[in-house]
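Folds vary. Our protein:
___
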Amino acid sequence: MGMVVVEDDCFVPERFVTLTYSGRDPWGVGVKIAEQVKPFFHVSSSGTNNMRLNWDDAGDPVSFYSIWWAKVKYSRFTTAWFRFKVQGEKKKADNTGTFTFELQANLETKFEGWSPILRTAWLMYSYLFYNRIRRKMIERCRNTALNFKNELKKHFELDTTSTPAYGG
């Protein structure tokens, strides 16, 4: 069996979208992400995970680092992957500090088949279907990720940016 894997970055030409915060309760971003990922992306527990959570509370300020991901199926062949990274610190005395939130979004398309006919089948599929739908999926992925970023901005009372709604 052969396999074709096509990966598209939803934020081309940028690789990441970042958000920086300074103020009260910087670890609140971790709580907000944990609460919002499943309902926002409409995924079950198997569609999301907190891959890493590090705390260093030996000194002051306390530093933290965490990585989450969520995967959303867009079609039989295509899955959107959203990765969230948060790194920050907070003071023990008054719970103020900073964090940097980094968001990455990618589309992954996997197409499997018997090797001798895989290339021909992929070329036909790509020409007739995938290239037209691909643009819509990339825009949907981008809009979903930016809307999630705006949810966090709203929660931390930062200026929100408008994102055009997905029209498909």
